[in-house]
Amino acid sequence: MSMFRILDISATGLHAQTVRLNTVASNMANVDSISSNKDEIYRSKQPVFQTILEGNLQEPTGGVRVKEIVEDQKPAKMEYNPGHPLADDKGYIYRPNVNVVEEMANMMSASRSYETNIEVMNTSKQILMRTIQLGK
């Protein structure tokens, strides 16, 4: 396997973890949103990754890509608050199905995976540089 393919594979991991971090940020930014309708409230989003097994001119052979971003199907949180201006006719407001603890764990995991891919790239770069210096 060429060293450049290793860099390509690590780059796909960096991209995937960037998307994961962005979805976590979006989920965390909307955790306090409120709606009067359970169908209109923000729903937690999660990226679905897919392994790249065969390459073409645009993608490397090996690595990972984001297949899609899906909404969590857990129900929205109902809160009885009849005095709230957005309360429905029964006195309920709806909050997103975002779990802050899960999102923090996702953020930490994505950050670690991102750091690991950076380390793979740095190590590959060092090996390439040492290989070049062998010829001197």
Automatic annotation (TrEMBL):
Protein's UniProt name: Flagellar basal-body rod protein FlgC
Positions in coiled-coil regions: none
UniProt subcellular location: Bacterial flagellum basal body
Record keywords: Bacterial flagellum, Cell projection, Cilium, Flagellum
Protein family per UniProt: Belongs to the flagella basal body rod proteins family.
UniProt key word Thylakoid: no
rRNA processing among keywords: no
Pfam families on file: Flg_bb_rod, Flg_bbr_C
Residue span(s) of domain Flagellar basal body rod protein N-terminal: 7-32
Subcellular location, principal: other
Subunit structure: The basal body constitutes a major portion of the flagellar organelle and consists of four rings (L,P,S, and M) mounted on a central rod. The rod consists of about 26 subunits of FlgG in the distal portion, and FlgB, FlgC and FlgF are thought to build up the proximal portion of the rod with about 6 subunits each.
Gene: flgC
GO biological process, one term: bacterial-type flagellum-dependent swarming motility
